[in-house]
Write a structure and sequence with these properties.
The complex is a heterodimer of chains A (about 110) and B (about 110). Chain A has about 110 residues and is mainly β. Chain A has no helices and 11 strands. In chain A, the strands form 2 sheets. In chain A, strands 2, 4, 5, 6, 9, 10 and 11 form a 7-stranded mixed β-sheet that branches. A 4-stranded antiparallel β-sheet of chain A has the order 1-3-8-7, with no helix packed on it. Chain A starts with a strand and ends with a strand. Chain B has about 110 residues and is an all-beta fold. Chain B contains no helices and 11 strands. In chain B, strands 2, 4, 5, 9, 10 and 11 form a 6-stranded mixed β-sheet that branches. Chain B has a 5-stranded antiparallel β-sheet with strand order 1-3-8-7-6, with no helix packed on it. In chain B, strand 4 and strand 5 form a beta hairpin. Chain B is globular and about 40 Å long. The chains are: A mainly beta (about 110), B mainly beta (about 110). At the A-B interface, strand 5 and strand 10 of A face strand 4, strand 5 and strand 9 of B.
């Protein structure tokens, strides 16, 4: 069966510091991978999605970037965090169509 | 108009009640419809997945899709305190997926 791992689970970072969130998927190959952000009391905002190694699509221009160095690895990064980057970040994967499966999430607090 | 509208609640019911959660949408091209349950500080968990109009039942949960009226519903029978969570509707067209804002449900013992 497929599983998705996401880490770290919780992160507290100062403004201006870098960020790296990692996500890996097991049990499938060539999945579509996604990064979402969920602000408190708000819906899910799609940040990036990838259909293959090195192929990244950005949905919202912002302080973040994403990379897919391997088929089942998806990384969310920032060079300098802003206060507004605080939130709950979710990695997800899906077959080419159909349902989306989420990781457990990474809670980022920028101080 | 948002593509997907979902009443944010909060919704509070006594244990054993029947719960009805609803979403409406504007894009008639949506093909697949999903309901997710999200516990506090956790990732959303897929509950129900369907692609046709009608009802789909799984234990105490029933998902209903009405494509002609563009709304979907999730019914929870014999609700339990463990059902207390935020419920998100979602729908997809090829690669695009749209989510409702989520309804927070509390089931009181």
């Amino acid at each position: 069966s497929q599983t998705i791992h996401q880490w770290p689970a919780t992160l507290v970072q100062p403004v201006g510091s870098p960020l790296s969130l990692e996500c890996t998927v097991e049990g499938t190959s060539n999945p579509n991978l996604y990064w979402y952000r969920q602000a408190a009391g708000r819906g899910l905002q799609l940040l990036f999605y990838s259909v293959g190694i090195g192929q990244i699509s950005s949905e919202v221009p912002q302080n973040l970037s994403a990379s897919r160095p391997q088929d089942r690895q998806f990384i969310l990064s920032s060079k300098k965090l802003l206060l507004s980057d605080s939130g709950f970040y979710l990695c997800a994967w899906r077959p080419h169509t159909g349902e989306l499966f989420f990781g457990e999430g990474s809670r980022l607090t920028v101080l | 108009q948002k593509e997907v509208e979902q009443d944010p609640g909060p919704l509070s019911v006594p244990e054993g009640a029947i719960v009805s959660l609803n979403c409406t949408y504007s894009n008639s091209a949506f093909q697949y419809f999903m309901w997710y349950r999200q516990y506090s500080r956790k990732g959303p968990e897929l509950l129900m997945y369907t692609y046709s109009s009608g009802n789909k039942e799984d234990g105490r949960f029933t998902a209903q899709v009405d494509k002609s009226s563009k709304y979907i519903s999730l019914f929870i029978r014999d609700s339990q305190p463990s059902d207390s969570a935020t419920y998100l509707c979602a729908m997809t067209l090829l690669r695009d997926m749209r989510f409702g804002a989520g309804t927070r449900l509390t089931v009181k013992p």
